[in-house]
Design brief:
The protein has 155 residues and is an alpha/beta fold. It has five helices and six strands; from the N terminus they run βαββαβαββαα.
């Protein structure tokens, strides 16, 4: 398993949590972005810079993703593609998107897009709070712990 990050929009504080987790657990962490990224030196962390354009980074993540990989993203269509390919998607607030909740999230996203398209001001997400950061860190740790146990149980 490896962790992929839709890094263009991922908050720095979330990336820092991911850097620590990758090194602590010796898990491959790949950040994909349209621009150069600065990451700490680590044999577990790498970056991929893709060309500019709509969904170029998303396409690269989905193309290289293996079933069981974890993707960090707030992008609902990317999360849906990840789930369809057998991966897992966790947003920067710590919400795990699954086959059980992705359709509802896609529907809500589409409704909000239609409202914005017709001129309705829908507002954006609130800034990440300390509680959001802690929730993300806790859910990431729980996910990685479950995955490690699953790997050990296999022959």
């Amino acid at each position: 398993m490896q962790i992929w990050v839709d890094a263009d929009a991922c908050p720095r504080v979330i990336k820092e949590i991911l850097f620590r987790a990758a090194d602590k657990r010796r898990i491959a962490l790949t950040l994909v972005a349209n621009q150069p990224l600065r990451v700490p030196p680590s044999r577990h962390i790498r970056t991929i810079q893709v060309g500019s354009g709509l969904d170029v980074a998303d396409g690269r993540i989905v193309a290289e993703l293996h079933p069981g990989d974890l993707v960090i993203t707030a992008d609902i269509p990317l999360a849906a593609a990840v789930i369809d390919k057998g991966g897992h998607a966790l947003d920067p607030r710590g919400t795990l998107m699954t086959v059980d909740n992705i359709d509802e999230r896609l529907m809500m996203r589409n409704v909000l897009d239609e409202l914005r398209g017709s001129g309705v001001e829908t507002g954006g997400p609130s800034p990440l709070s300390q509680g959001d950061r802690q929730t993300f860190a806790n859910h990431l740790d729980a996910f990685l712990t479950r995955h490690a146990r699953g790997q050990q149980a296999q022959p």
